[in-house]
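Subject: design request, 147 residues
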């Protein structure tokens, strides 16, 4: 009877270990990073999830909460732009933050999603007056630490 319990415990341990490995592998494919507290808009909260796809591209999902409308900044701006620092040291404009109606909603929520072939090491957001800017303005609204 004791031998049966050891065998059953051993099987349970193996199943548990396998499940743990599967969970760790699945979670390692997606990195969830919080943005640092903003000195410009301290109430703003944001996270970014970066996931690698089967083509070795990077899907970037950003969720924003309590980010003031860019028109309310001092000086006022027209839009928020998302930037990425790559593993090669380049800075890339990866898009404009939009909501369903084109500007920030009354709930001050926004989402951003893009796919890039570059490997990001840092994501940051600036307020700009033109969507076609080639380099970010000096004032960073939100940023992650390097990851």
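Subject: RE: design request

Done. Sequence follows.
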């Amino acid at each position: 009877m004791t031998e049966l319990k050891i065998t059953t415990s051993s099987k349970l341990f193996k199943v548990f270990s396998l499940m743990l490995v599967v969970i760790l592998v699945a979670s390692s494919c997606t990195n969830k990073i919080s943005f640092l507290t903003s000195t410009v808009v301290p109430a703003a909260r944001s996270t970014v999830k970066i996931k690698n796809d089967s083509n070795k591209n990077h899907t970037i999902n950003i969720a924003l909460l309590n980010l003031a409308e860019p028109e309310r900044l001092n000086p006022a701006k027209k839009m928020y732009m998302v930037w990425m620092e790559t593993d090669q040291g380049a800075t890339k404009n990866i898009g404009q933050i939009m909501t369903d109606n084109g500007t920030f909603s009354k709930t001050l929520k926004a989402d951003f999603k893009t796919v890039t072939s570059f490997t990001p090491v840092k994501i940051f957001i600036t307020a700009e007056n033109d969507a076609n800017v080639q380099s970010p303005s000096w004032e960073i609204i939100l940023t992650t630490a390097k990851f």
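The mean pLDDT is 84.
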